[in-house]
Design a protein that fits this description.
Largest sheet: none
Helix content: over 70%
Strand content: under 5%
Number of helices: 10
Number of domains: 2
Structural class: mainly alpha
Radius of gyration: 16 Å
Order of helices and strands: HHHHHHHHHH
Oligomer: single chain
Distance between the termini: 43 Å
Shape: globular
Number of strands: 0
């Protein structure tokens, strides 16, 4: 693990416990948006979404998220991308079709961890009025993996619809 990856991980751990990080941590995270590997970029995005009050930093993180979603498939960092999508404004799913398409692709992943997290993102997309997201959530309630189906059922219940 590279030094910047380790520092990002440490910052992310602190971000999970507090909502305000020192400015130098946020500046560091923003500087890492373009440093490989993709997991480090995703971690930098999550730090900025969770803790930055800077609109420009959050916009850069959103642009990076869109780039990462465009090329993501079955890699481990995809799980982090779903977590990030829980922090973006709902309007991003309408204004950035790549985010929506990524969530829909993820629902068909061969990896149950990705499908499980995709259900939470599909719930957010459903809140934009997207009927296809709700239908895909309903399909995931019948997934062969119990974690996926349970998460999809819980998402539909949170939305207020019956399974």
């Amino acid at each position: 693990m590279e030094p910047h990856e380790l520092r990002l991980w440490e910052i992310l751990q602190r971000a999970g416990k507090i909502n305000h990080l020192p400015e130098d941590d946020l500046v560091f995270a923003e500087a890492c948006l373009d440093k490989p590997p993709f997991q480090a970029q995703a971690n930098a995005c999550e730090i900025l979404f969770r803790c930055s009050r800077s609109e420009s930093a959050r916009c850069r993180a959103l642009d990076k998220l869109q780039q990462l979603c465009t090329y993501a498939a079955e890699e481990d960092y995809v799980v982090t991308l779903h977590t990030l999508m829980l922090y973006v404004p709902l309007s991003a799913f309408t204004n950035m079709p790549d985010l929506r398409e990524f969530a829909f692709r993820s629902a068909g992943s061969s990896r149950w961890q990705i499908r499980t997290n995709a259900a939470s993102v599909l719930l957010r997309i459903t809140k934009t009025g997207d009927p296809d997201a709700l239908e895909l959530l309903r399909l995931l309630t019948r997934d062969s993996n119990s974690y996926v189906s349970a998460n999809a059922r819980n998402a539909i219940q949170r939305f207020g619809d019956s399974v």
